[in-house]
Amino acid sequence: MAVDPKFLAAWIDGQPDSEWSGTSIFGHKLRKFSLWHRTLLKAVDSPFMRKGSVALFDLRNAVGICKLKYPDSRIVRPKLGPFLMTLGLITRGLLSRRKPQADTKEPNILQKALARRITAFLEYCGDYLQEPEYTIIPPDIKGGTKNTPRGQAPDELQHASELIAWSGWSEDVVWNLPLGKASWYRAMARKATGLDVDFTTPEEKAFQAQLPESFKHR
Fold first, then answer.
1. Is residue 89 assigned to a domain?
2. Entry pTM
């Protein structure tokens, strides 16, 4: 049986350190993206969590958050002096060689530099989002009636609580787990509690990919 590549990617990232990623933005190294980071990004209503337009302040906020380790929530945004100084030197060099031309809507050098770093941050997050694909088969409902729906706690809290209850690990360990690892452990925790967890295997994914579109949406 083939090994799920998402499972491998959740553990193997090519980094020698257990806490730090290989990504640096504005000269600041980021920790591996964790439940705690996602919680703090939601707390500040980061556009990275709601697909909004990202400004320079938002990126600095996100970098400050992803340097933190649970339970630290003191966001220290990176200073932009060195970044802007380098950008200024580049800009002056370009301007000294640029020929006069008509105004265009092409992004300026600051916008391009920001876009590159936003892309780098999104790629960094993506390195730690390898969640398993699985389905929980609901138990038979006795008497043919469904339970009354209940309100749900925030997903990050449910996630952390399930892992703590299952593993006995400390809060620090759970909240600092890279998100992909935490998601795989959560699936196993659910299985251990007796839920009927049906993992989607690579073979099943390949089979589903070959199905006609009309069949997939039934």
1. yes
2. 0.80
- The set of long-range contacts for 149-154, using a CB threshold of 8 Å and a minimum separation of 24, is 154/39
The alpha carbons of the chain give a radius of gyration, in whole angstroms, of: 22
On whether residue 18 sits in a domain, the answer given is yes
Instruction: Tell me whether residue 44 is in a domain.
Output: yes
- Separation of alpha carbons 133 and 198, rounded Å: 9
What is each CA distance from 40 to 69, 107, 131, 194, in whole angstroms? Answer: 11, 31, 20, 32
pLDDT digits (tens, 9 = 90+) for 14-51: 888 889 999 999 999 999 999 999 999 999 999 999 98
Cβ atoms of 140 and 166 closer than 8 Å: no
Number of domains in the chain: 1
The residues near 197 (Cβ < 8 Å, ≥ 6 apart) are: 134, 135, 136, 137, 187, 190, 191
* Full residue range of the structural domain in which residue 36 is found: 14-97+106-126
Q: Exposure of 61 by Cβ count < 10 A (0-12 exposed, 13-18 middle, 19+ buried)?
A: buried
Assigned domain for 39 exists: yes
DSSP state of 51: T
